[in-house]
Structures are given as structure tokens and as C-alpha cells.
Amino acid sequence: EAGVTQSPTHLIKTRGQQATLRCSPISGHTSVYWYQQALGLGLQFLLWYDEGEERNRGNFPPRFSGRQFPNYSSELNVNALELEDSALYLCASSPKGKYSGNTIYFGEGSWLTVV
Amino acid sequence: AQSVTQLGSHVSVSEGALVLLRCNYSSSVPPYLFWYVQYPNQGLQLLLKYTTGATLVKGINGFEAEFKKSETSFHLTKPSAHMSDAAEYFCAVSDPGGSYIPTFGRGTSLIVHP
Lengths: 115, 114
Hints:
The complex is a heterodimer of chains A (115) and B (114).
Chain A: E1 5-7, E2 10-13, E3 19-24, E4 29-37, E5 43-50, E6 53-57, E7 64-68, E8 74-78, E9 87-95, E10 105-106, E11 110-114
Parallel strand pairs in A: 2-11
Antiparallel strand pairs in A: 1-3, 3-8, 4-5, 4-9, 5-6, 7-8, 9-10, 9-11
Chain B: E1 3-5, E2 10-14, E3 19-21, E4 24-26, E5 32-38, E6 44-50, E7 56-58, E8 64-68, E9 73-78, E10 87-94, E11 103-104, E12 108-113
Parallel strand pairs in B: 2-12
Antiparallel strand pairs in B: 1-4, 3-9, 5-6, 5-10, 7-8, 8-9, 10-11, 10-12
């Protein structure tokens, strides 16, 4: 069974541009989470989608946005890129049902470099 | 609000020595607790988790952790370190009645010397 897949693996953008990152959850999973992992800061929660709806967002500016499609895949958009947006962006998925004990399964991440 | 503190951004052990990675949490209710491992250039993989029941939890690769409510801790241990254990380890907490979003610590890098 395929795990969480993310694309692209690496992305280099110029300050001010837009970046789009994509995520396909594990088959049967309806929740998708996005985390930013910047050097030395651990994982910072960005967004949570469940069954097509945005359920929660972390303490990030509105230029970080995303959506979840009917097939539960998701994309993360970052507008007006800033140098400090350079980080590993991790997508994770979890099974259907709102249960805090659910394990969330991570993809390998997309490295975004802003120059 | 819940939070996680991982003591020590780096822990260095010799191969064969005991591994102890510390995690303390802050939560208004008994939380669910997780340990994840991240190998270089990879995503995070679940090592073990505590939800309810036995407070000593065994995970993959010989790791285990014990939930101690009185100490608000969930330290990760392994009796004998192996070179392949070198990785970043993250403790996470979620609120059983809350937002379904795990909060992660900043991570501890485990270095294993031959």
C-alpha cells in the first residue's frame, strides 16, 4: 500500500513568487495535515483538512493557504514568498474519524528554498 | 493549550549504551502521547504511542516509553543503542477532547558513536 506521497521533492523559488506543493494521502485516509519544519524550530502546524474542509490552521499569515480535493489529495500554496519560508514542508494523513489518538502518517516532505 | 518540551537538542551515546530521550508535556487533561523518528532526508515515522491502558508502551526497533502522569513525562528509552538509531526524535501530544492536531516538540538529535 502506498504511503503519503508529496511533490515536488525540491523546489527553488525567488522571493515574491508563489509555490505550490502537493500531497496524496494514504488510500482511505480523509484527513490531511501540513506542517512546516524549519531548521531548529521543530514541526510547526500549518493547516488541517478533513473531508474537503479546512478544519483548523496554525499561526501563519494568510499567504499560506491550501485546499483539499474530492479525492482527498491536497495542495499547499505559499504566496509572496519570503526568505524565511525556506523549509521542509511535511504532509501527513490520518484515517477517517475525529479521534485524537489516531496515528498520523507522514510523507517524505517537499524542500522549498527561497532565494 | 498543550505543549511539549524535549530536554536536550542533541544526545550523544556510545553504541551499546542506554538511550534516554526526555519528553515533558503540559496539558489540562491526560493526553495522548507519541514518539516519532525522522531519519535523514525522510519524513517522520511513528515509533510508539500511548492512548489508554498500560503506561509502559513498547514500540518498534526496541524502543519503549513510559507515561508518568505525576511527572507529566513520556521519556523514550532503548537498552542498547545501535548505529542505525542515529536520527531525529520527536515527541508529540494531542488532546483527547480537543482539536485532533498533534503538537510536536522541537526534536532531539540522537548521535551514536562507535
